[in-house]
Design the sequence.
């Protein structure tokens, strides 16, 4: 590809054994992403066809099925290029691809944000409903012929978010495709109706145990090829959660409403022009508040306001 990474180096497709990373624009920084094309002796699949696959133009990489790590706009943006092959989602995310309304339900945005985002999902991300999509489950294996793609259910980002572990005959090498456990400095995103903070934490522990040659993320961190780099990145990524929680606790030195907490910004930076920031702050920080209250660190008064104990 002729695109350039953030640092200005040209981005070229990267071969990892039987798989090829198809880098998106800006190294896969949102709304772009890096798709994975995996070829076996009998079948080929593409995982998370992104805007980058659309931007390549011409005939898209030929595949027999499309696998999705989860049901989000940037991961389905190139799926419409494959109307005639089966699409596969984890059973928990599968309802989201049935219709545009069902898809929007994954985010659960308030009506004015929903109304603003809906046209972008259709036009920018080429949403196409596929009610005939198929369900996969944890530990399912797609046998491509000498190459296997195994499902690791890693919920939290969405209910059905999954990673894929890829191995092949004649090699000890394996690939872990991490989807939106994207190891970015932004940290874990759990701001949707279908997100769950504590599931995300369990999933982070699960992927930490996996040892492979290559760790591939959907967004701009791209591919990590040493375990040392992977653990360093993963621990920093996971560490954003307790950091947000500590900042919240410090902010609750006096009573605060959820409105004030959302406005203060713990997920995004105060100046970030993100349309749905307030909704995401509200949902994410509610999850932190719930567990701080349950653990006895925070009290919610009769007026609904929160304060540190
Ligand atoms: Zn996502």
Sequence:
């Amino acid at each position: 590809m002729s695109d350039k990474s953030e640092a200005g180096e040209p981005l070229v497709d990267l071969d990892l054994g039987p798989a090829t990373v198809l880098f998106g624009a800006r190294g896969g920084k949102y709304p772009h992403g890096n798709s994975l094309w995996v070829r076996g002796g009998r079948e080929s699949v593409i995982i998370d066809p992104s805007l980058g696959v659309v931007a390549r133009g011409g005939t898209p990489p030929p595949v027999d099925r499309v696998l999705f790590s989860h049901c989000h706009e940037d991961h389905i943006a190139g799926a419409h290029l494959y109307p005639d092959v089966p699409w596969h989602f984890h059973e928990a995310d599968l309802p989201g691809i049935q219709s545009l309304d069902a898809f929007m339900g994954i985010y659960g945005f308030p009506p004015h944000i929903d109304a603003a985002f809906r046209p972008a999902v259709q036009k920018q991300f080429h949403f196409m409903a596929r009610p005939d999509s198929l369900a996969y489950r944890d530990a399912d294996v797609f046998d491509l012929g000498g190459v296997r793609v195994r499902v690791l259910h890693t919920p939290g980002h969405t209910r059905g978010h999954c990673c894929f572990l890829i191995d092949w005959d004649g090699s000890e090498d394996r690939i872990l495709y991490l989807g939106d456990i994207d190891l970015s400095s932004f940290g874990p995103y759990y701001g949707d109706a279908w997100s769950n903070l504590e599931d995300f934490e369990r999933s982070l522990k699960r992927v930490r145990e996996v040892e492979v040659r290559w760790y591939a993320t959907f967004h701009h961190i791209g591919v990590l090829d040493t375990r040392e780099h992977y653990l360093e990145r993963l621990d920093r990524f996971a560490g954003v959660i307790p950091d947000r929680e500590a900042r919240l606790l410090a902010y609750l030195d006096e009573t605060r409403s959820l409105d004030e907490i959302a406005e203060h910004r713990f997920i995004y930076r105060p100046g970030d022009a993100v349309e749905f920031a307030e909704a995401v702050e509200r949902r994410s920080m509610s999850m932190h508040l719930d567990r701080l209250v349950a653990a006895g660190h925070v009290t919610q008064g009769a007026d609904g306001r929160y304060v540190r104990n």
User: Anything to note?
Assistant: Residues 1-9 have pLDDT under 50 and may be disordered. The two ends are 55 Å apart (CA to CA). The helical segments are 51-55, 100-107, 111-123, 197-208, 227-251, 258-264, 277-294. The chain is about 30% helix and 20% strand.
